Amino acid sequence: DGGITQSPKYLFRKEGQNVTLSCEQNLNHDAMYWYRQDPGQGLRLIYYSQIVNDFQKGDIAEGYSVSREKKESFPLTVTSAQKNPTAFYLCASSVRQGPSTDTQYFGPGTRLTVL
Amino acid sequence: KQEVTQIPAALSVPEGENLVLNCSFTDSAIYNLQWFRQDPGKGLTSLLLIQSSQREQTSGRLNASLDKSSGRSTLYIAASQPGDSATYLCAVRPHSGAGSYQLTFGKGTKLSVIP
Fold first, then answer.
1. Does residue B24 belong to the interface with chain A, where contact is any CB pair within 8 Å?
2. CA–CA separation, A107 and A46 (whole Å)
3. How far is B14 from A1, CA to CA, in rounded Å?
4. How close does chain A come to B97, measured CA to CA in Å?
5. Which helix (H) or strand (E) holds B74?
6. pLDDT band at A41 (very low <50, low <70, confident <90, very high)
7. B40-76: per-residue pLDDT in tens?
């Protein structure tokens, strides 16, 4: 089955720890995205990547880092610098970037809770 | 800066009723608009994508319209079913320029269809 997988589904972090959220896709999509969703809020873009070894900051990149070493993978690290990391994190991918007719396909999400 | 508003925030209807969800946006310079469905604790599923040059798109019992000049879109659901219960989000993509990759999401309308 083609799709996007995120792991783990639930993640607990102690204050001061860095944690990494996994996102993998087998759709052969060029672009990948990370969003954060807080209760009753719309999605906000953290980082996006158009091609391997290239990524750009979204609206709320502070306290987060990413890498794109493979087309299929786009892991997100939540660092200790992120002051309010408790949220639902969604990864997405699309065929291509830029003004096009692409649709973004989303993974099932990871719920991060800081203890 | 683009702002997307969805009203109402929550809606409860009896099964079988036709209903309309509303989405408004402040900047009419969009490339396309998407409607998504999100079930509790899950990722987003794309329902319909309307290009800025289009007036509407249909898929089964769903019909989405777009009036770009007035900054409005509606999602019409015919003959609602309990399985339609979910949160519905709309998102707009800017027409061009820096950030044209970036979707701006509304906060969503939580729909409950009562059997």
1. no
2. 15
3. 36
4. 9
5. strand B72-77
6. confident
7. 999 999 999 998 899 999 999 999 999 999 999 999 9
